[in-house]
Amino acid sequence: MQTRKIISIRSFCLIVFLLSSPILAFPIQISKDWKIAAGKNLEVRAEDPSWKEFKSLPIPKDLLRSFSFSEDVVPTVTLLKTFDVSSQDIQGLTMDGLSIHFPLLTNVYEIYFNGEKIGEGGAILGGKIVKNGFKRHVIFPIPENKIKIGKNEIRLILSSDAGEELDAYASFDSTPPVVDLQSRNALILSERSTLMLSFLYLFVGFYHFLFYFKRPQEKYNLFFGLFSISLSTYIYLRSNSVYELNLDPLLQMKLEYMVVFNVTAFFLLFLDNFFDSKISSISRFYQFFALALTSLIPFSSRAICVYLLQIWQFSVFVFAAYSLFIMLRALYRKNQDSVRLFAGFIILLVSAITDLVGSMQLVPYLENYGLLKYGFFTFELGIVFILANRFLRVHNEVEELNLDLDRKVKERTGQLEDTLSQIQELKIQQDGDYFLTSLLLDPLNRYKIQNETILVEGFSRQKKHFEFKQWKKEIGGDIIIADEVVLKDRRYLVFVNGDAMGKSIQGAGGALVLGVVFRSFLSRTKTSSSYHSKPPELWLKECFLELQNIFESFDGSMLISVVLGLVDLESGILFFLNAEHPWTVLYRDGVSSFIEDKLELRKIGITGLESKMKVKIFFLEKGDSIFIGSDGRDDLLLGVDPDGTRLINEDESQFLKRVEESRGDLGLLIQGLRNYGELTDDLSVLKLTYMKDPVRLETFARNALFKFPDETYSKYLDAENWEHALYYLENIKSKIQDGNMPPVFKKELAKVYYKTGKFEEALLLFEDLISEFPEDVETMFMASLIYKRFKRFRQAVELGERVLLREPEFLNNVAHLAESYLFIHKKDVTVKLLEKVDQLDPSNSHAKKIRIQLDSPIPDHRNG
C-alpha cells in the first residue's frame, strides 16, 4: 500500500542535528530536476538530447506513457540526476561518509554513482523479473573515492512488469530523497516509537484475549483483541524492521494487505458487540467482504493486489460512516462508555481517514503520515479509562461490602444458626417418629421358630439408619414373619416376606400394616375353629384377600410385594402365593434354581387380583433349602460409567450364583452379595431348610414291599371292566389287616368304587386320603363330585375351590364348581366361573346345561 507517515521524532532529531552541525552543502535534496530515458542507459552522456527532463519526482505518468516498451522485455527506464560538491564539502567528510537515500523504489532497481554501481534490489533473468526489489527507505553508502569536486552524477535504473507501478517516490514518512552524511541517513531507519507502539498494541490485544477467556460471554474483548493485534502486526509490517526477516517483497506486501483488510472489520465487530451486545447484518456483510478480499490476495499478482487495495480503500469510507453512526447512536442512548470513548474515537477516525486520503493521493501535497498508530493510542486511553472506571466501581463496591461485612457475617451466621437449630429440632422429631415406628415393627418382624422338621433363618437390613438418643436403629419397608399354625389337624409353618413401596417411613408404614393384619389373621387362626378348620389353599386365599382389602383402601398410595406361604411339616409340601416379589429360589444338591417362572399376581393394593389368584405347590425333599428375598438382593450398585451414570445390576440370575457360591449358607450369601455390589435398597432374605423325609402318596407308591397296581388289575383297568376290577380289589382288601391298607391301593379302590356307583364307600376312602395326603388333586376332585351327588354342596365347593386354586385351568373342575355354587344360590360366582369355562372351551356342553339351570328355580341347599 502506497502510504506515508507523519513527521516522526527521528525527523525532529535530524533537524536538531543539522542545526547544531557546521554549515555544509549536505544534505542535498535530489527530488527535483531529473532526466529520464527508456531502457538501461549507462553510457549516454547527460548532455545527450535523448534524455527527457521532468521537474520533480515522482515520475509523471504521462511521461512514462510516452515510452513504448517491447512486449518481450521488462519495461525499464533510466533516471539521471547531477549535483555539485565543493572542496569544502569534501573536507567536511573526514569524520563521516556520504550515503544516498530513496524513500521508495519500485520495482527492480540499480543505483550508480559516477558510473559505479553502489546498490541494487531485485533481479531480472531471461527477460522476466525473478526477484522483486521494491523497498521503503533504500539507503546505500557512496564510496569516498567516487566523490568528485564539482559535478557528480546519479543514475537510477528502474524496471517493473507491465501494468505495475514503475516509480521513485519523492517522499515517504515525510522523508525526501537526499544525499547526506551516513550518520544522518541512518537516523531515518530509527523506529523506536513505532516499535514501542506496535508492542504496546500487541500486549493490549493479548490482554483482552485474557479477558475473553475468563468471561467468554463478553465477546467484544475477543474482537478488540483481534483488532489490536492486527493493527500491531500491520504497523510492524510497515516498519523497516520487517526487512530483517528477508521476506520476498511481494510476499511481504501480500501479508500487509491481508492484515489491513481485516483491521477495519474487527473494529466494526467490536463496536457492534460493545454497545449492542450483538452483531448487525451490516457488520457481518463487511466482515465477509474483508474475508473475500483477503482470500484473493494469495493468488493475485502485484498489480491485482494493488487493485484490491484500492477497492478496500473506498470501502473504508463506508466503514467510517457506519462506525460513526454506531458511536452516535450509543451517545443518543446515553451509554456512559460511549461518552468516555468518543474523543479517542474521533481522533482515531480522523487520523485513519487522513492517512487513507494521503495514501490514495486524493488531495494534492497530502500523503500518508502514519497518524493511525498515534490515533489508536488516544482511543486506547479511552479503553483504559473505561477499565479503570470499572475497576474503581468494583473496588468501591468491595470496600462497601467489607465495611458492612462483619455485621452481615454475624447476621448471616445467626440466621444459619437459627435455621440449623430448627433443622436439628425437626431431625430429632423425625428420628423420634422413626424410633417409635421401629418399636412398633420390632415385635411384628419375628421369625425365630424352634422346630425339628424345618429350620428357619432370616436376614433383614433396612437402607435407612438413624440415631435417637442412645439408640441406633434402622427403618424401612422390608418385613419377615414366620410362625406355626394347625389347619385341619396338620401342622404348618406359615411365613411371609414383604417389601412395601417407598423408602424409610413410607415403606415402614406399609410393613407395619402388613405385620399387624397378618399377625391378627394368625391370632384368629389359632383361636377360632372357623379358621383352623380351613385347608391350606383356602387359608392362603382368605389371608391374601384380607391383606388386599386393607391395602386397596389406600387408593394405590401404599403397595407391597409379598411371598405368602405354608409348609406342611409332615409332607414337605410348600403352598405359596407370589405377588410381584422376586422369584423363590430352591437350593438342592449344590445347585440353585427358580421354582417359578411366571408372574401370576401384581403387588398387593392393586385392584382386580382375586380372579388371577393361583396357589403354587412345590414338594420339598430332605435337605432342600428355600430362599425368599426382597428386590434388594438384585438392586446392587456395580459402579459408575464414564458419564457418571450409576450401573445397577439387572441380571436376576446373579442371586442364583451367589447362593451356589455360599453353598446355601445365609451369612456367606449376604457377604457374597455385598462383595458383588453395593446394597442400594432394603434387603431381607428368608431361608427355609426342610430336614426330614417327607410323607407323601408317591413315597408309598415307590414301596417295594407292596407292588401295586399289578398286572391283573392293569388288564381290568385297560378294559374298563370295573366289576371284575372291584371283585379283584376287594379280594386283596380281605387279606390286608385293618388300618394297614397301602395308600396307593386305597386310592385305586376308591376310584373303582366310584366307577361302580358305590359312592359312600368311595367317599370314605377319598376323605382318608385327602386328610393324609393333601397333595393329590385328583382325589380332591373326585371327592368333590361325590359331595355334589350327595347334595353336600358346601363340602363340594370347598374341595372344588382347593382344586381351582391349584389348577385354575382344570376345565371339568371349573364347570363342576360353577354348578356347585349355583346350588347354594351364589349365581354371581357361577356366572364368573362360566365365563372362565367359555375362555377355556367356548363349546362346553356342561356349561350350556348350567346356563339353562340359571333361569330355572333351584331348591334351597344353602345349608347342605
Spell out the key features of this protein:
disordered N terminus, 4 domains, 26 helices, alpha+beta, 49% helix, 864 residues, five-stranded antiparallel β-sheet, single chain
Describe the structure in your own words.
- The chain is an alpha+beta fold and 864 residues long.
- It has a six-stranded antiparallel β-sheet. Strands 1, 5, 10, 12 and 13 form a five-stranded antiparallel β-sheet that branches.
- Strand 21 and strand 22 form a beta hairpin.
- Helix 9 packs antiparallel against helix 10, helix 18 packs antiparallel against helix 19 and helix 21 packs antiparallel against helix 22.
- The longest helix is centred in the middle third of the chain and has 70 residues.
- Keywords: Kinase, Membrane, TPR repeat, Transferase, Transmembrane, Transmembrane helix.
- InterPro entries: 7TMR_DISM_rcpt_extracell_dom1, PPM-type-like_dom_sf, PPM-type_phosphatase-like_dom, TPR-like_helical_dom_sf, TPR_rpt.
- This is Histidine kinase.
Q: Provide the CATH topology of the largest domain.
A: Phosphatase 2c, domain 1
Mean pLDDT level: 83
Q: Helical element count?
A: 26
The separation of the N and C termini measures 122 Å
Question: What is the topology?
Answer:
Elements: H1 9-20, E1 28-29, E2 32-38, E3 52-56, H2 61-65, E4 76-85, H3 87-91, E5 98-106, E6 108-113, E7 116-121, E8 123-125, E9 128-131, E10 135-142, E11 150-159, E12 167-168, E13 178-181, H4 182-188, H5 192-214, H6 220-237, H7 249-276, H8 281-296, H9 302-332, H10 336-360, H11 372-441, E14 454-461, E15 464-468, E16 471-475, E17 478-487, E18 490-500, H12 504-527, H13 529-532, H14 536-552, E19 560-568, E20 573-579, E21 585-588, E22 591-594, E23 616-619, E24 625-629, E25 636-640, E26 646-648, H15 653-662, H16 666-676, E27 678-679, E28 683-690, H17 697-701, H18 711-719, H19 722-733, H20 743-755, H21 759-772, H22 777-789, H23 793-806, H24 811-823, H25 827-840, H26 845-854
Antiparallel strand pairs: 1-13, 2-3, 2-4, 4-11, 5-10, 5-12, 5-13, 6-7, 6-11, 8-9, 14-28, 15-16, 17-18, 18-19, 19-20, 20-23, 21-22, 21-24, 24-28, 25-26, 25-27
Helix pairs in contact: 5-6, 6-7, 7-8, 7-9, 8-9, 9-10, 10-11, 11-12, 12-14, 14-23, 15-16, 18-19, 19-20, 20-21, 21-22, 22-23, 23-24, 24-25, 24-26, 25-26
